[in-house]
Amino acid sequence: MELMTDHRFRRTIKYLRALLIIGLFCLSIGLLLFIGILVYAKILGPPPLAVPQSTLYFSDDGTVIGESNNGEKRYWVELEEISPKLIEATIAIEDKTYYKHNGFDYKRIAGAALADIKARAKVQGASTISQQYARNLFLEHEKTWKRKFLEAFYTIRLEMNYTKDQILEGYLNTIYYGKGAYGIQAASQYYFGKDANSLSLGEATVLAGIPKGPSIYSPLASLERSKQRQEIILNVMVKNGFITREEANAALREKLVIIGKHSLDSVDFAPYFQDAVRQALKNVLNIDERTIELGGLKIYTTLDLEQQKIAEETIEKYISSDSEIQVGMVSMDPKTGQVKAMVGGRDYVKSPFNRAVQAVRQPGSTMKPLLYYTALEQGFTPSSTMRSEVTTFKFQDNRPEYTPHNFNNLYANDDITMAQALALSDNVYAVKTHLFLGEETLVETAKKFGISSKMAKVPSLALGTSGVRVIEMANAYSIIANGGKKVTPTLIKKVENHKGEVIYEKEQINEPILRPEEAFVMTHMMTGIFDRKLNGYSNVTGSTVVNNMTRMYAGKSGSTETDSWMIGYTPQLVTAVWTGFDKGKPIQLSSEKTYAKNIWINFMESALEGEPVKTFKAPKGTVGVYVNPQNGLLATEDCPVKRLTYFVAGTEPTEYCIDHIEGVKEEPEHKKEKNKKEKIPWYKKLFKWGS
């Protein structure tokens, strides 16, 4: 009996020793595995905290005008920009020992494990804020043991590499609050229409209760359940010493005003402009589409809210609702090239095609200032004369004859000056100048003025028969307006990434590409379309809007069978307007032919209201003299009309007009007719033009 008992005792000791060895081995393996996990986590380093965020677009005064539209509202704010009451409420209800543990609350884990074992299923959670943040960043929200293991691993990595405040900031910026609002800033704006740093205690405790079940505890889903959860949170805050009982009772009684609307819903402000900005981000700054949509960028644009509003209202006012006419409009600061307003069509929802930057249309006579600027560089002056009459141009290279026509087939049938030719938009004068300079010259000039659209080397190019974009013409006129300095259309001033780091900032380069003297002379010539002193065989082309002007403008209108343009400027602002049909249908109604001019003058007057009235200042190297506008000669006291005209110094006329001096005997008609036949104009000596 004693031998049997001794045998059993030794066998028990043997088993216990084996169990101890196995236990120690398993413990060692577990310890090594745990150490290995820690070492592996450390080797991997800090996990990236970047999450999808909405990209925001700002106007030039810092107002948010739009955001990337992916159905989710995500805005990142720093911990210091979040209401302390919201932080306290969140910690109190979600993880009261947050600042004491290393990522895991073992007491809560044990309790949850017992509950799961009893239910034989995953029924209760014990996740800390760190664990929830890990899940939000890296994992799906399925309740499986595999997911819990990975969640624990990511939690270790977070806790090893980031501070508690960094993790808490990330959690509050990624947690889902319902209705597409991710993060406390989006939730604050959606539910209460305010930023996260402005929440009251009552508002903060309502929001803190939502993440447990957005479809249950949202005040929009059930105000009753929302208030019940708010009361639980307030009681926990009192218990943990965050607030007093009096503060809790006051928060419960607080009347909440629920907005229930995202600050930027439906179609954003200035949608055509924002489309153009997105294209610039992609094609100019080479930012990929995913980053643009989900990268949490902050895009600081050049848009002027007031001018954009005026542009849209003006277009709506002056284009009949019954008309199918479309519109493209760009307004720019000529000194910087910054686009202040853009309209690409009458209804973005019906047609997102941006006619301001995408449509290529014939500019008509708005091309003439570019032509005449080049003529000034080649020795022409505002007083250079050529004959305005029906002219057929014949070419030696077997090209067909070309006969340009003036509007309504009106001609001076006499010599006119370049200044008057521009003011009256004489087509014959323009084609003669174009052919004299050489057909390739205007093509090169267009490139110098920033026009990238293809130009055809044909006689009619002087009359704007090669298509251009509205934004190109606005930029070309800006170069003349600023005295000849190169600018490019600028939509974006600065771009910041989700960390607030500047990844792009526009540099202002004032590279002179035109001669300032000729640029100013050209500008002053362009004021002539509004000056009735230049009336001749027809009225100046800007005469219909003169009565609406309260300041000096320079500009040029243009029209083809299918296109109507008006482009003009002051020293502060350049605006280009195109109107026409998308399919190139002829514009036949008289009222529709006036849309471009009416939109332009009324926009300019409204946009510049309250701004100082600035005139165009003559630079050194220019001379202003009074001339007879009909012949370009120096005016005398006897001339009935005198107009101050500017010239590049040394090119001003030296001969006085004698047509109106009393006592000067007029030549007999037969002698004038003889001289007229014998006299061969200078330009016909260079080219064999027929007429």
From TrEMBL:
Chief location: membrane
EC numbers for this chain: 2.4.-.-
Keywords assigned by UniProt, alphabetized: Carboxypeptidase, Cell membrane, Cell shape, Cell wall biogenesis/degradation, Glycosyltransferase, Hydrolase, Membrane, Multifunctional enzyme, Peptidoglycan synthesis, Protease, Transferase, Transmembrane, Transmembrane helix
Residues annotated as transmembrane: 20-41
The keyword Cell membrane appears for this protein: yes
Signal peptide: none
Keyword Phosphoprotein set for record: no
Domain Penicillin-binding protein transpeptidase, residue spans: 329-574
SUPFAM superfamilies attached to this UniProt entry: beta-lactamase/transpeptidase-like, Lysozyme-like
Subcellular location, record wording: Cell membrane
Pfam family name, one: Transgly
Domain Glycosyl transferase family as annotated: residue spans: 62-237
Catalytic reaction annotation: Preferential cleavage: (Ac)2-L-Lys-D-Ala-|-D-Ala. Also transpeptidation of peptidyl-alanyl moieties that are N-acyl substituents of D-alanine; [GlcNAc-(1->4)-Mur2Ac(oyl-L-Ala-gamma-D-Glu-L-Lys-D-Ala-D-Ala)](n)-di-trans,octa-cis-undecaprenyl diphosphate + beta-D-GlcNAc-(1->4)-Mur2Ac(oyl-L-Ala-gamma-D-Glu-L-Lys-D-Ala-D-Ala)-di-trans,octa-cis-undecaprenyl diphosphate = [GlcNAc-(1->4)-Mur2Ac(oyl-L-Ala-gamma-D-Glu-L-Lys-D-Ala-D-Ala)](n+1)-di-trans,octa-cis-undecaprenyl diphosphate + di-trans,octa-cis-undecaprenyl diphosphate + H(+)
An MF annotation (GO) of this entry: glycosyltransferase activity
Positions in coiled-coil regions: none
PANTHER family: BINDING PROTEIN TRANSPEPTIDASE, PUTATIVE-RELATED, PENICILLIN-BINDING PROTEIN 1B
Protein name: Transglycosylase domain-containing protein
Organism field: Robertmurraya mangrovi
Upper classification of the organism: Bacteria, Bacillati, Bacillota, Bacilli, Bacillales
